[in-house]
Amino acid sequence: MDAADSIAEFIEHWRKTGGSELANTQSFVNGLCHLLGVDPPRGSLADDAHNDYVFERRVFQDNGDGTTSFGRIDCYKRGCFILEAKQGSDADRAAVARGEDDLLLSGLTPSAKLKRGTARRGTPGWLKAMHQAKGQAEFYAKALPVDHGSPPILLVTDVGHCIEVFADFSGTGKTYAPFPDPARFRIMLDDLHDAEVRDRLRAIWTDPKSLDPAARAARVTREIADLLATVARRIEKRGYNAEATSGFLMRVLFTMFAEDCALIPPGAFTGLLKNQRGNPEHLEHQLAALWAAMDKGEFSPALGVPLRKFNGYLFKERTAIPLDGEELEVLIRAAEHEWTEVEPAIFGTLLERALSSKDRAKLGAHYTPRAYVERLIAPTIMEPLRADWNGVRGAAGSLIEEGKPEEALRKVEEFHARLAQTRVLDPACGTGNFLYVAMARMKELEGEVVSFLTELGHTQYVAEMTGHTITPENFLGLEINPRAKEIAQLVLWIGYLQWHFRVNGRDRVPPEPILRDVRTIQNRDALIDYDDRVLERDEHGQPVSRWDGETMKDHPVTGKKVPDETARVEVYRYINPRPAQWPRADFIVGNPPFIGGKDVRSRLGDGYFQALFKTTKVPESADFVMHWWDKAAMAVRKDGTRRFGFITTNSITQVFSRRVMAAHLDARTDSICCSPSPITLGSMKRTARQSALP
């Protein structure tokens, strides 16, 4: 029997079970393993320490009152997955047969789990049963031994019908989302004919981390950043300033991205570049004309087709820089990459380094990987939002069972409306990686909500959702570096469009204009505002300068890093300084700059130091990051912010920094006590605000 026949036989056999309570989970998993060519689970041993790939893997939880709860994972493979069946397991049936119906770790009894398996497919009850099975798998992930860690994959199966796949590659086990996206996370039996689907399942069994899209994306992104740095370096050597160079290259790279997303004809831009290999001097005129057509949504002579209206801010300036033949070849190489695979979470950082002559040498240096950013985004933003959603989804399921479907739909719609209005602020956003990851995770949650509405048959709401969804407008930033600010805004749009096409397919184009001039990233100081900034001059009228506070050099004798006094910046005096006002947001996250309290004056200069401490009660000896902490805590207490989370260093626990926290922890506002819960992240520490009644 060939492979195609084996697949067809497997599908036909399990389809006949009809999802009955008697469908055998273990037989189904063993058959699937045979089909995929992977080893089946082994027999369980008495010592759970050796049960790394088994059926009915026991897990325990200390209830804190001298008692222990336990549960059994239907199928478990350490470091790979937890599988939970909607139908329950053989162990559940055996427990019911013995008259043992005690409450399990998941909050269900064995008989309740079996009853869950009888929910009829295609009904709201079925959706509720699958949701309960996922929740049970999440409980088990938290109850695993600490040294096992959280598996990257959860599988929820309705035996003989489908397998739902959820992933969390961050290692936290707190934000399992539909994988690879809400449009493809549910694998129906007939989908097993697709080799790509079988490969995905095989990888879940053998190497699930290879499925993490951030891994390949990071390599592609670094390669592209290296190419852009090469062009930027050559252009600047010809006398073009950094602002003109970066603006030009950002327009080029977004056009490459638009080509790969079919926002402009696929291959058209790369073809335009290749056609000018013999005459690169003509390219600047063609690029300027192309960007004018993209801005207005007009016919493009350069491409020979009418274009969609991009508008927004990116193509308001259409100036193109002349390129020579070698520079053109580098851009062609960049255009030949698959731009839809770029990882926005790190692209901004690498692009800023590529476009900055000062930071270009850091291109190969460490950057904050997406998984690390997610360790902050998950508890600060996604845990409360998912708790909200789980409550709403459970309530909706109960209302449907009570014969109140319209009330259930209204409750879900109201949740989606609140989610679509949720705003996130990063008050030191750099190139936007924290904001992008927050957007990606919130879009995943929105996808689940919309899928739930669709499965309930509410297609009209989904069809009319345009303008009633999460977009870059939900994500606000403050950034003092003007180029980083522009990159951050671009990163959000690229990430948003990637998500749109991943979920909706390339045939469903977002409404025009493609780019809206929302300007949610503000180029300004996060801590102080002022009437004017006046350049200090000496007695001869010459500008006063100081060390830039950053550039270091090797000491000629000791070899240690010391300030490079030749790296100078001008000194300013701030007129009428006052506290900066932050935009209102539901959540605040970020990685504010770290400067030890004793170094703030030397790093930032006397003028800024004096202005800052005219506007704040933060002690001068406190770490610089505590100014962000102070303002974020006040937003929680006074402005309705739900939580905030920052990456800081361990010195936040020292005396002067603790005084800042104590002032807020001891305050009482509207019967709410602000209680930060520090959580160590390797050598770094996060403070995430939580609320509790005093």
How much of the residues is beta strand, in percent? 15-25%
Number of helical elements: 21
From the helix content, strand content and strand pairing, which structural class follows?
Answer: alpha+beta
Radius of gyration: 28 Å
Percent of residues in helices: 40-55%
Mean pLDDT level: 85
Characterize the main sheet: 7 strands, mixed
Top keywords for this entry?
694 residues, alpha+beta, seven-stranded mixed β-sheet, 24 strands, globular, disordered C terminus
Kindly describe this structure:
- The protein has 694 residues and is α+β, with helices and mostly antiparallel strands.
- The protein has 21 helices and 24 strands.
- The strands form seven sheets. Strands 1, 2, 3, 4, 5, 6 and 7 form a seven-stranded mixed β-sheet that branches.
- It is globular, with a radius of gyration of 28 Å.
Could you outline the blueprint of secondary structure elements for this entry?
Elements (H helix, E strand, L loop, with lengths): L2 H13 L9 H12 L16 E10 L5 E10 L3 E5 L4 H8 L12 H7 L7 H20 L9 E6 L3 E6 L9 E2 L7 E3 L6 H12 L6 H25 L4 H19 L7 H8 L7 H14 L2 E2 L4 E2 L18 H11 L8 H12 L14 H32 L3 H16 L3 E3 L6 H23 L3 H5 L11 E4 L3 H23 L16 E2 L5 E2 L2 E4 L9 E3 L4 E3 L6 E3 L4 E3 L1 E4 L2 E2 L7 E4 L9 H5 L1 H7 L12 H14 L4 E7 L5 H11 L7 E9 L2 E9 L2
Parallel strand pairs: 3-4, 10-11, 10-21, 11-12, 21-22
Antiparallel strand pairs: 1-2, 2-3, 4-5, 5-6, 5-7, 8-9, 13-20, 14-19, 15-18, 16-17, 22-24, 23-24
Helix pairs in contact: 1-2, 3-4, 5-13, 7-8, 7-11, 7-12, 8-17, 9-11, 12-15, 12-17, 13-14, 13-15, 14-15, 15-17, 20-21
